[in-house]
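We were asked to recover a plausible sequence for a given structure. The inputs and outputs are reproduced exactly as logged, with field labels preserved.

PROBLEM: sequence recovery
POSITIONS: 177
GIVEN STRUCTURE:
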């Protein structure tokens, strides 16, 4: 399955996961600069965390990697929680003083606020991709996530960043980019 051509210069595939929930967690992303084909991947993890925190960390870390303000980026994720939180729920929570309906506390509020600040700095569009369905970018990010969890479990440190002069994946791009 090929994704549609992308109208932005940057595409990121993100993923997060956990072995046990809570348990050992990992996140990973692959960021591709479409005009040049350059790629960057990163991963990280935590000894005791949740799946949702790791999904959020992947998006946070890819946005933190952007060096200039007002970048146009499409983030492709298999986490409906992450996408819905970012596109549907966050503005309402923020408007209510970071409370949910009925004044219930928001889980992972530290990461929600950090993500909100980063989203305000860039032009982000979100795309949901079906997880574990053979979509190459999602599979790549999933492998980074699993590698991070493996490293975390072995006690060797999950953090790693690699730059690719040529991205390991090709993403269809719109004309003019």
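RECOVERED SEQUENCE:
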């Amino acid at each position: 399955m090929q994704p549609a051509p992308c109208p932005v210069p940057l595409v990121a595939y993100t993923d997060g996961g956990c072995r046990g929930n809570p348990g050992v967690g990992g996140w990973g992303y692959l960021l591709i600069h479409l005009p040049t084909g350059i790629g960057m991947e990163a991963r990280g993890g935590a000894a005791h965390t949740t799946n949702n925190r790791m999904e959020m960390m992947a998006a946070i870390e890819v946005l933190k990697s952007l060096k200039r303000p007002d970048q146009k980026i499409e983030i492709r994720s298999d986490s409906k929680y992450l996408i819905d939180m970012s596109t549907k729920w966050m503005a309402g929570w923020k408007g209510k003083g970071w409370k949910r309906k009925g004044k219930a506390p928001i889980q992972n509020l530290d990461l929600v606020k950090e993500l909100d600040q980063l989203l305000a700095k860039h032009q982000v569009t979100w795309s949901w991709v079906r997880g574990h369905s053979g979509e190459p970018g999602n599979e790549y990010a999933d492998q980074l996530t699993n590698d991070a969890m493996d490293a975390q479990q072995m006690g060797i440190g999950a953090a790693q960043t690699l730059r690719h002069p040529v991205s390991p994946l090709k993403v269809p791009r719109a004309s003019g980019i």
